[in-house]
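User: Sequence for AI-2E family transporter below. Tokens please.
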Amino acid sequence: MTPLVRKAAAWSWRLLVIFAAIVVLLWTVKRLEVIVVPVALATILAALLLPAVDWLDHRGVPRGAAVALTLLSGLALVGGILTFVVTQFIKGAPDLIEQVSRSVEGVRDWLITGPLELSREQIQSAGDAFVQALRDNEERLARGTVSTATAVTEIVTGAVLVLFTLIFLLHGGRNIFSFVTLIVPATVRNRVRDAGRAGFYSLIGYVRATFLVALIDAIGIGTGLAIMGIPLALPLASLVFLGAFVPLVGAVITGFLAVIVALIAKGWIFALITLGLIVAVQQVEGHVLQPLVMGRAVSIHPLAVVLAIASGGVLAGIIGALLAVPVLAFLNSAVRVLVAEDPDAAEAALVASDEPVIKAPADDIDEPADQADTRTGDA
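Assistant: Structure tokens for AI-2E family transporter:
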């Protein structure tokens, strides 16, 4: 057997073992999706809210009160945005329905008097066929409604789990992480903890940058819609803000809703202008905001972001697309610190990649293993 074949065989079985481990890990995550997804979402929210909790804590506010104040403020903000969007859509629904009715009548007249020259009987027959198709699939639609109700129940359960996990992470996440890493051999325990800190601080930078980019997207698109006089400009901008937390595609998908509203309310010209506005804002985001803001927080190549979103979407749908880039940002910093030859090399790698240098706060220094064991009750 030639050396080349032996090397290829050695690499092949090692790669097969790695691939099998990844498959088992993904299968386990899929089986525990009801638990894994809320915990992951809570971790991302903790990365967003932890700096505010620490800021209040360092200024003398009790830790529990700081967590409660931060959570209540965040819930009030998100609830206010969602309430505003829903109420504005309800208020504007009659006008949109009237616009849709006029548009349908206009399309019907064009089909009759336009180049197609269809008869009213043909149009009526097409409408009757559509209604009959709905009636034929009534049972399937009913099953879909039941599935939707089940999904809503799972969402509520997951939201409760996210809330409880978030509270514990904000209040004592550092102690929890120190306790969990006790299962790691003592010889590499500090390195694992350093890697975890690096990944989490990179996640904090990612969440901050995403928040800023989403806000700028919403302001840009909302301002353009208001100038053009498109109905529901502020609610649509709020949806763009929420959708922008899914990188690259979220703002585009929610922006197309604005295109549909513009088409219904103002016609093709304004719909095309709205589409151009969304494309322009996305170009500014991709060529200006992402390099300046996101690039300094997390050094990830745009191709890696696209592939991560696509893979997450294929594996876990919308949730997978939402979590893919944060997970990639965490692993990007954590793995580089974990495999570095020494802490100085890890720090130099972070500086060279234009990422923020990760340093543990003074109150986050690891305790010796024997002292940490005495504090397991705090975890």
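The chain has two domains: 32-81+108-183, 194-362.
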